[in-house]
């Protein structure tokens, strides 16, 4: 039972859950990115490069000339598929940029000392009725003090005891 309990603790831990969600989103996002690169971005780039299809750009290592990559593969020729490499590189850069944007936005929402839910939940200022973060003690809109009880630091007075 100890192994199961330890596994449960690992899966419930925030980093493991975040990693799992990231992997699922990455797999779902991959199909979208593949379509974006193959169907939208690479055809105009191919037109710029004298109407070449990137997926048919290859070098045959046996010295023969083949009309397409499929014909070279069918003949059993060894090929260097640099067109497929260019396609994969563009996909990688787009995925990397998309992940950067997502992480950047998450870091904007989350502050180092703050729980992630606190950054997304709001309360209403009783004075100006504007939405503000739940942890706010001063309204950023009207500058009114929202804290009714003084903080514990303000209540504690330093006392000197001399014996």
Automatic annotation (TrEMBL):
Pfam families: MscL. Keywords: Cell membrane, Ion channel, Ion transport, Membrane, Transmembrane, Transmembrane helix, Transport. It is a multi-pass membrane protein. The chain crosses the membrane at residues 21-42, 82-103. GO terms for cellular component: membrane. InterPro entries: MS_channel (IPR001185), MSC/AndL (IPR037673), MscL_channel (IPR036019). The keyword Cell wall biogenesis/degradation does not apply. It is found in: Membrane. Its main location: membrane. GO terms for molecular function: mechanosensitive monoatomic ion channel activity. The keyword Isomerase does not apply. It comes from the Bacteria. This is Large conductance mechanosensitive channel protein MscL. The gene is mscL.
